[in-house]
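CORE FACILITY INTAKE
Project code: CF-77B
Contact: R.S. (postdoc)
Sample description: multi-component assembly, two entities in total
Requested service: structural model of the whole complex
Turnaround: standard
Below are the sequence entries exactly as provided by the requester. Do not edit them.
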Amino acid sequence: MKKFIGLTAVVTAIAMTSPVYSSGFLDEYANQAQQENASFNGFSVERGKALYLTKHATGKAETPACTSCHTNSPTQSGNTRAGKTIAPLAVSASPDRYTDKRKVEKWFRRNCNSVLGRACSATEKGDFITFMLTQ
Amino acid sequence: MTDTHGTSQNIKPPVIWDLPLRLFHWSMVAVVITAAITGYFFEEWWLDVHVYAGYALTCLLMFRLIWGFVGSFYSRFHTFPLSPIAVLNHLKDLLKGKSETHTGHNPVGAWMIVVLLTTLILLVVTGFVVWGGQENNGPLASVVGYQVGEGGEDIHEVLAGILMAAIGIHVLGVLIETVIFKHPLIKAMITGRKEGVPPTGKIVSVWHSLAGVLILIGVGAAFSYWITSTAQTPLAMSSNTTYQQECGDCHPAYHPSLRTQHDWQEIMSNLSDHYGEDASLDDSSHREITTYLNTQDAFSFDTEVAHKIGRYDTSSLRMTDTRYWQKKHDELDDDEFNHPSIGSKVNCNACHKDADSGRFDDDQIKLPKGIHL
């Protein structure tokens, strides 16, 4: 019974938070993704997770993966290479994540270049945020 | 009530050194030992203790100078047998293997006191100059510049050497007097009474003790008023929120005094490859931060860290590649810098609690738990 209530709470929480985000710039990313790729049909948690965990090593040597600084668990705090704490990426742990478009774009611009050695596509950005919304 | 000798009592020798003088003497011993140990061996880590010893020393010396005019007879400077003839005669006697009993100081001893007091006064003065100029602290912080403070440190060190030599001679002289010539000088400085001395007729009373305490309290109050009324001046740095936010996300927003204008320019013009990461900025932030760092750099600040680290260009642009930085951190190895409580070499704030202000005071260094030297 307890488990059931817990599960219901989580599902409700996700159901209540997701629309707030999807109505924001996640929609913009979806529009962009559509333009970039005609066969685009929605963001994927799985793809976002893979993007997050994969050791790409196509960018700068110091930062082969997102996890280099953000750790393997998005609900944990990360550390910059200089030693500063980074708030968790998961929305459940940092509720104010992905609300400021300027900030989100800044970090995608910087970190996609650092980790992947190129800019991220709108699909990748949307997948990434969608994954973080579920964490 | 009175602490004096009676003319009819020949059992007890007369009191030569009044109580305040004796307390002054032994307090000096304790304070000078503290200052010497902290100054010679723990200059960086115990600088605050060294400075407090210096503050105490200042009060004691001011007391002694006043006491030289208002104390009991043998404490007064005008009773010191300082004439060259007396010194010469005393030295001649010593060479012949004898030393006459003197009621107060003997002539050589009196000159020793003059040398010791003069050296100590100069030490305290130069100490304030170093504390104010080099460390930007204490009552002279706003008056003395960094370079003067650095020069003051050289003089302070020479004086400390002279003091150590003078103390050595002083102790040796007292031991010779005590052991060879059987004048119990050490005992006299404890009890105040000097054996083998005829009645002096000079009264040393409880009023002297009272006056001594009052003078010391007065001196202490005046001194602490001076110290607090000249509290340290904050370093002028107009804060820039864009700089704090944009640069402070990944590493501490370093105080502008840590690099030269040239190095700041270089860093700002290569942000897309900033020590292995893309740290690029949007145009307006970039312009704002560049202007900010152009208007204040290491040459706009008169601090130790600006002079010793900030003003040196390095090819890597890193402050951690300056000789001074490396010398100052040579006791820490990579393991310690990578320790979770520090994170990296460039996380100054992990240990320097005042890094944001650009002061980097020695007494603001607090090693986090798990870090030992």
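Facility notes:
- Helices of chain A lie at 2-22, 25-36, 45-53, 67-70, 101-116, 122-134.
- Chain A touches chain B through 16 residues (CB under 8 Å).
Invoice: internal transfer
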